[in-house]
Write a structure and sequence with these properties.
With 303 residues, the chain is of the alpha+beta class. It folds into 2 domains: 9-128, Aminotransferase class 4, branched-chain amino acid transferase, N-terminal domain (D-amino Acid Aminotransferase, Chain A, domain 1); 134-294, Alpha-Beta Barrel (D-amino Acid Aminotransferase, Chain A, domain 2), CATH 3.20.10. Helix content is 28%, strand content 25%. Strands 7, 8, 9, 10, 11, 12, 13, 14 and 15 form a 9-stranded mixed sheet that branches. A 6-stranded antiparallel sheet has the order 2-1-6-5-3-4. Strand 10 (199-204) and strand 11 (207-210) form a beta hairpin. The relative contact order is 0.14. The chain binds N-(5'-phosphopyridoxyl)-D-alanine. N-(5'-phosphopyridoxyl)-D-alanine is lined by residues 40, 168, 194, 197-199, 218, 220-223, 256-259. Residues 40, 168, 194, 197-199, 218, 220-223, 256-259 line the site of N-(5'-phosphopyridoxyl)-D-alanine.
């Protein structure tokens, strides 16, 4: 059931609806088989942040399931803008927007044959973006190291930002059960990979380290951006294979995502990480991230 009180506007194949009225046919293969891909973006000063990078990843995800994303980026940008206008979130004056773009295989007969679906379904959900509570950044969070293994890359590549989120949802259920803010997952080799909805970094000897892509994880846009933030801030940010001992022996730890920016992790289950408070490297990276966002924000569009 659509959550009452959540003001969302939804664009379904070019038509915009109030969230509670937006529907997709049950013969859509996104519903039947989970065949679809998505992106989550947010705005700063009313403009979708790192739009081109998200579109590039959307097309890469779609390509890996042999799904065509027909309209060009400019078309999708216009559709987002129109949906933001309907939601009263254009230009930033009504607050920042959360934007989710979903592309599914579309409607077709009951078969796995992609040829059965002549046209993909494109859905854009726009609702107000809500920042994590200030205490999350100030005090940091407790996460759980869960035993649900991240999908094997040769079974279902984590490179695909798929609408089929069962692997992530089941892992997050374990984290919820322990009252944790997020769940850290390992890959089939037992290495740390990422969290259920965010990427993982540990800080050791002044450097921010994150598992390599070929460990089997989603190449987060925020994760990628952090290499640039680190270069500007004079903090080494690099990929490294990470195991449990690296996490529990780390000076600091944090997660990154579009909607959460950089969140300090101060405890994993019942074990404190570093000093048990957000560390100096994490804090400098978060400040550097926000500074770079401000520098990059284009002049706010006039209505
Ligand atoms: N989650 N890893 C996973 C499994 C994710 O689902 C996400 C994003 C990330 C971080 O990626 P990015 O920096 O591009 O947001 C890493 C988004 C926010 C979501 O599912 O809505």
């Amino acid at each position: 059931m659509y959550a009452a009180g959540v003001a969302a506007f939804v664009n379904v194949n070019g038509s915009i609806f109030d969230g509670k009225d937006a529907v997709v046919p049950v013969f859509d293969h996104g519903f039947l088989y989970g065949e679809g891909v998505y992106e989550t973006l947010r705005t700063y000063q009313g403009q979708p942040f790192l739009f081109e990078r998200h579109m590039q990843r959307l097309r890469a995800s779609a390509g890996m399931i042999a799904l065509a994303v027909p309209p060009d980026d400019a078309h999708l940008r216009r559709q987002i803008a129109e949906t933001m206008t309907a939601a009263g979130l254009r230009g930033g004056s009504g607050g920042e927007a959360y934007i989710r773009i979903l592309v599914t295989r579309g409607v077709g007969e009951l078969t796995y044959d992609p040829a059965a679906c002549p046209a993909p379904t494109i859905v854009i959900i726009v609702k107000p973006h809500v920042d994590p509570p200030a205490a999350v950044f100030a005090a940091g969070v407790t996460v759980a190291l869960v035993d649900v293994v991240r999908n094997h890359p040769q079974a279902l590549s984590p490179l695909i930002k798929s609408n089929n989120l069962l692997n992530n949802a089941l892992a997050m259920q374990r984290a919820f059960a322990r009252g944790a803010y997020e769940g850290i997952m390992r890959n089939y080799r037992g290495e740390l990979v990422e969290c259920t909805q965010s990427n993982l970094f540990v800080v050791s000897e002044g450097a921010a380290l994150t598992p390599p892509i070929d460990a089997g994880l989603l190449p987060g846009i925020t994760r990628g951006f952090l290499f640039e933030v680190g270069a500007d801030a004079g903090i080494p940010v690099r990929e490294q294979v990470l195991r449990d001992a690296d996490l529990f022996g780390a000076d600091e730890c944090f997660l990154t995502s579009t909607t959460r920016e950089i969140v300090p992790i101060v405890q994993v289950d019942d074990r404190r990480i570093g000093a048990g408070t957000p560390g100096p490297v994490t804090t400098r990276l978060l400040e550097g991230f926000r500074r770079k966002v401000r520098e990059m924000a284009p002049v706010v569009e006039q209505a």
